[in-house]
Amino acid sequence: MEIKSVQKFVKTSPRKLRLVANLAKKMKPAEAIETLPFSRKRAADPLVKVIKTAVANAKERGLKEENLIFKEIQINEGPRLKRGRPASRGVWHPYKRRMSHIRVILEEKKGKEKTLKPKTKVKKEEKPAKKETKKKVETKKKGKTK
Questions:
Q1: Model's pTM, two decimal places?
Q2: Which of 45, 85, 130, 136 lies 20 to 30 angstroms, CA to CA, from 94?
Q3: What is the SS3 assignment for 63?
Q4: Gap between the Cα atoms of 27 and 93, Å rounded
Q5: Residue 49 belongs to what domain range?
Q6: Do residues 38 and 22 touch, judged by C-beta distance below 8 A?
């Protein structure tokens, strides 16, 4: 079962958010909620909020927090605000204030099923040797070899 949580129009650039998202992908959601605030990145706060929302949605559906893993953390680009900065000689230098959309998808961890291996080793059957072709047989009879 997939649990989605989306936050749109976050006023942090996607590039900065992706740095924190790559850290979180390697962890479990509960572990990410605990450790991301100490990552010394301002972009961690909105990501932690979205992860908490996704975990709360999962609990509402009756799933346990320990069994959840990240299926996907997507950081997409939102709209850009065009701004400018005054420069020398009355020139205006434009820049863009970038926004992001965060999408977190959680999934329930599936238990690993153990397959039983047979204790006795099965011997593989050997392939029969290739038959010699008629041409080779005829040349051997004549005494010529190629």
A1: 0.72
A2: 45
A3: coil
A4: 41
A5: 2-108
A6: no
